Every structure is written in C-alpha cells, then in structure tokens.
Amino acid sequence: MCFLFEDFKGWKQYCEQHQMPLHQAVIEYEVSEKEASEEKIWDGLANAYTVMKEAVQTGLTQDMTSRSGMINNGAKKVFNYPKPLLSKEFQVLISRALAAKEVNSCMGRVVAAPTAGASGIIPGVMVTFQELHGVDDRKIHEGLLVSAGIALIMEKRASIAGAVGGCQAETGSAAAMAAGAMVYCLGGSVDQVFNAVAITIQCMLGLICDPVAGLVEVPCVVRNASAAAIANSSAQIALADVSGVIPVDECVEAMGEVGQSMETRYKETALGGLAATTTGQAISKRVLIQDIEMLPDEDQE
Amino acid sequence: MAEQSSVFDMIGPVMIGPSSSHTAGVVRIGRVARKILGKAPETADITFYNSFARTYEGHGSDRAIIAGLMDFKTDDDRIKTALDLAKEAGFQYKFKSVGNASVMHPNTVKVVATSGDRTIEVVGESRGGGVIKIGSVNGFGVGFNANLSTMIIMAADKKGAIAFIATVLANEDCNIASMAVNRKGKNDRACHVIEMDSKPSQVTIDFLKHLSWINEVIFIPDIDF
Ligand code: SF4
C-alpha cells in the first residue's frame, strides 16, 4: 500500500485497478498505514471541517488583532466593504480566507491544512464552494480526503514546509489541495482533478517564504486570500478540460527542484524578500526579542 | 524512523495558531517533557535556540511550551492564556534565548523542569507541520517523534538486555516499530527507546520497572491522546 502515495500516476492506477474513487484510496492508505478505522477517519474529517467553519466565523465576528499589531481585523473590513469588485461571492471568498488565517495569527483554533501558515485557504475555499454549490458535508469530507492525498504526494516529492520549499510549499500546496477538492466534489474526472493540481502548482511556483519579523502574518494573511483565488481560477480552467500541458507529477517535481535551489534567505528565515525591506526590518526590531546570548561560532558539542 | 504521514498530518493537526512549528510543535515538546517528568512541574527553565530565539514571543512559543508542560493539547483554547494560568497555579518559569547553536536544529527548545525532587531535561526539535523529534532526554540521545507509543528505559548496560526487553514486549503482542539504544560508557548506563504500534499493559510496564537492573521506565503514549 505504501506505493500508493508516491506519485499521482500511482494513485490513478490504483483507483483504476480497483475501480474505486480517489477518496477511497486515501481511506485505504490511512487504514493500512495508521491502522485507523474508517469511522474514525470520517469523524476526524467532520471535526476538521467543523473547526474550519468555526475559524471562518470567528475571524469575521471577533476581534482579530495579533500580538505584533500587524494583523488588525482585515477580514471584516473586506467583508463589509460596500462595493464588490467582481461579485459578492468573490468578496466573500477573499474575506473568508483572510478570516480563517487571521484567527491563526491571533492564537485561535485552526486546522493546519497542510500547515498553519496556509490555514485560511481550504476553509475559505470550501465553505464558499459548499454554499454556492449546495453539496453536503459528506461530499466536502470526501473532497478533503482527496486534498490530503494530494498533499501526501507533494510532501513526499516536493515539500509542504516553508522552511524547506518556500511559500509555494505552504500556500501553494494548500491551493492545489483546494482546487483538486473542488473539482472532485463537482464530479470531475481523475484527470481533471489532477490537472487542477498541476495548474495550481504552475501558478504558485517559485513563491518565496519571507515573513516579516519571522511571524506568520505579513505576507501570509494576504497570500491565503490570493491562493484561494488561484485555487478557484485553476479549478475553473481544469473543469473545462483545458490542459496544464505539463503533467501533475512533473509539476510537483519542478516544485521540489525550485524549492531545493531556493536560497536559505527565502525559506522562513526572515532574511530576504519582504522581511528584508526597510519597513520589514524596522518592524522586526520593534517586535522581536533582542536579548539573545550568541554562542561562539565553533561551539562545543 | 521515517514514518509515513497520516491524512491528519495534511488536514491537521487541529491546533492553536499561529505556527505549526513554533506553536503546535512546541506544545507537543512541552507535553512530552510533562510525561517524562510524570507530574505537574513546579519550575521550568526554558531555552529557545536559533530561529526560536528571536521569535518565540511573536509566535507564542513561550505560551506554547508552558501550555504543554501543563499538559494542554495542541488544540486547547487555554494556550493563549497559558502564562497567566501558570502563574495562578504557582508554576514558575524562566525563558532564555541562545543563538548560533550550530549543532542544533534551527527550531530547538530545551526544557529543564522540576517537581519535588525530580528534575528532567528534554531537548526537542520542531521539524515543521507540528512534527517533533525529541533529541535527548536527561542527556541521552533518543530521537523519537512521539506519534507512536514510546517507552524509554534507563537501565544498566548489560548483555542480553535488548533481547530481553524485546521478548517481554513480543509476549504481549506489542509490535515494535523501532528500538534504539544509547549508552553512556561501556557497562555503565544504557537508554533504550522503543516505539510501538500499540500500548503495552500496565502490568508489563510495572514488571520492567521492578527489575533490579532497570532504573526507570517512562511510558509516553501517542502525544495527542
Ligand atoms: S510566507 Fe512563509 S510563513 Fe508565511 S505563509 Fe508563506 S510559507 Fe508560511
């Protein structure tokens, strides 16, 4: 069973061979690898989705000010702004992704999906998707299983950690998971689901991790909104069978390669990008601990 | 000890933000330390290394480690107010930052905790996504991630010890996922770290504990339970 989440090709083959939908293979993986019961898996998914919905709600209703002050109730402002740019739905999508992520920045409860830095994307996307398309919770849970399968492969072949692969690995993976889940929930074929993942990766490729002052706030919060938008644009493209041309496994490989060659200063170290700007530096001085004992370069054992 | 990830590592963990490595992982390390200490700590000296050193306040790692030491789980709302709760409970803590510790993983925290006459030292690494690795316990290199049932046995370094322990566990149908031994000097002391797919019974743990050549048996269940 371990072979299954090595690559997307293997996942597809397995499903074809056993004539099962994508999400069922993920259940089998979890049952065999973790000796979990199916019932427990469904319960876990239901719980995760409930926490996601709550996070969206909390972020839109309660005070969301972070300890550093950089995050200050942005989601509510977006939600309440009187003039939708595209449509009310788009405005709601963006504000929900922001909301769940703000909850995360303010020490509230979220689901790390796949990581805490990206914890606004799947909630923002799936809550909005469910509302617009009227799918039931069970279907959303299936979608989450598919997104977990996507992440398992991305973790193995590339990375899902900003410190290893840059922000493409975090918000990029989350967007790919969300895009795949939506296409799946709408009854898309395996190829369409995987194509949605491929296209999303193509859009998120190369994104560096450069959090100001090393805190998961700026640019993380706004990137959750943009990743939610990209997940939707990719899913829309994939549903229409417009190919991403480069197969999904190769896209993941490219992501891994880009992540590997990314310089350390772009991997959560807060030494490059936005973190290194004049303002970024000034904020960092203000909010970070300065009283640090530095060990000599050649430290003993 | 490369474990396959779970679906709930991808859709999860459910946690208190902001950071899976700086908050959730740190709660877990604190909780492992709590299990090793075996009771509520009275004091704790905490050292944050490298990347943790500067950002532990901004990420709430300070509240996270204290929350873990108070046995809160990663999704406990009380993490946010853990420092106040510790004060109320009379639990005293100190924080220190050390940078440039090149032999250590970027996200490392060391906990020295005491309760009564018992003092323990745990060094843990937070490896991203909430995954942790306990690097050392009381100076012995260990290297487990606490997502299985883990048993740490401090014993005299004697011949046949490994086989003996393995047999005792096998008799109970405990599937051993990994077993590692770390020694301090030949024929001195050995630290066995055993990761199992299921939990051994209390009788077995007590049996091992009462053997004269075994100094200590610490059992750590899957850290999120
Ligand atoms: S910038 Fe870095 S910390 Fe922020 S969301 Fe992206 S990967 Fe995570």
Automatic annotation (TrEMBL), chain A:
Q: Which cofactor does it need?
A: [4Fe-4S] cluster
Q: Which of the seven top EC classes does this enzyme belong to? A: lyase
The protein's annotated catalytic reaction(s) are: L-serine = pyruvate + NH4(+)
EC numbers for this chain: 4.3.1.17
InterPro entries with a match to the protein in the record: Fe-S_L-Ser, Ser_deHydtase-like_asu, Ser_deHydtase_asu
Q: Which Pfam families match?
A: SDH_alpha
- Pathway stated in the Swiss-Prot or TrEMBL entry: Carbohydrate biosynthesis; gluconeogenesis
Q: Which residues form the Serine dehydratase-like alpha subunit domain?
A: 18-275
Keyword annotations for this protein, in alphabetical order, are: 4Fe-4S, Gluconeogenesis, Iron, Iron-sulfur, Lyase, Metal-binding
* Family designation: Belongs to the iron-sulfur dependent L-serine dehydratase family.
> What is this protein identified as?
L-serine dehydratase
From which source organism is this entry? Roseivirga thermotolerans
TrEMBL record, chain B:
Boundaries of every Serine dehydratase beta chain domain copy: 6-81
User: Which EC number(s) does the record attach to this protein?
Assistant: 4.3.1.17
Q: Which SUPFAM superfamilies does this UniProt record tie to the protein?
A: ACT-like (SSF55021), Serine metabolism enzymes domain (SSF143548)
Necessary cofactors: [4Fe-4S] cluster
Top-rank EC class of the record's enzyme: lyase
Q: Name one Pfam family in it.
A: SDH_beta
Q: Please give the CDD domains that the UniProt record associates with this protein.
A: ACT_LSD
Q: Which reaction does it catalyse?
A: L-serine = pyruvate + NH4(+)
Q: Which keywords does UniProt give here?
A: 4Fe-4S, Gluconeogenesis, Iron, Iron-sulfur, Lyase, Metal-binding
Alphabetized NCBIfam families for the sequence: sda_beta (TIGR00719)
Which family does the record claim for this protein? Belongs to the iron-sulfur dependent L-serine dehydratase family.
Its recorded name reads L-serine dehydratase
Higher taxonomy:
Bacteria, Pseudomonadati, Bacteroidota, Cytophagia, Cytophagales
